[in-house]
Amino acid sequence: MKTKLVQRRRRGFTLMEVLLVLAILVILGSLVGYYFAGMQKRGYSDAAKAQIGMFEQQLDLYHLDVSGYPTTTQGLTALRQAPSDLRVPEKWRGPYAEKDIPMDPWGNPYQYELLGAEEFHIWSLGPNAQDAGDDISNK
After folding, report:
1. Measured between alpha carbons, how far is 97 from 78 in angstroms, rounded to an integer?
2. pLDDT, tens digit, for every residue of 40-51?
């Protein structure tokens, strides 16, 4: 009687199948990376808007006590330390900000400008750190 040799055939992935799976994984990984980069950009913008909103509230409290907003020269630091050139220093009841004035989410200082007796402008230079179209502002 002849013995049948049972050949076991190992079946693996072909090179083409492996390359196809790798290509799909690379495409999916780049899509996920692109999506998260967009989320981070939106998160930074939202954080800057929230901080600017807090500055507006603190500046309004400053205005109630001192009867005016800080000058451009005094800037946002007037929320933490009484400016040396106040007309009536006793009116300053700060600090109006609990902590030091933070940098914007991109690591740049917030910009402040007094536009008139009752109007101010606060803005972040945005991701490019230049006065350009991507600034985040209270105006």
Report:
1. 9
2. 888 888 999 999
